[in-house]
Amino acid sequence: MVDDDPTKVRNQPALTTSRGLEWLVIGGISAVLCVGVLLLQAPTDPLVAVGGSVVVAALFVAMIVVRYAVTPLRRRLGLLAALLGVMLVVTIAALLVVLLA
Length: 101
Known about the structure:
Number of domains: 1
Mean pLDDT: 89
């Protein structure tokens, strides 16, 4: 049974028809902002701030690799969305560690 209800999240155009470039642009902007915020915390806890920045940068590199290496469109877009989400979660987690320490 094909579910083509346009109001469902999994049927949105960003996860069905995009080629992935939009995800890379958003991911790049997010990565720059996340790394910038984390590096501002470096005087407080350099290990967590720099480590978080490295992980965020690696996740963005993974987004680039997925964009050009994964062939099935829907899988590629889902992976890009997941990597962007993980990038944001890592940033929030690192900030919480710095702020609560």
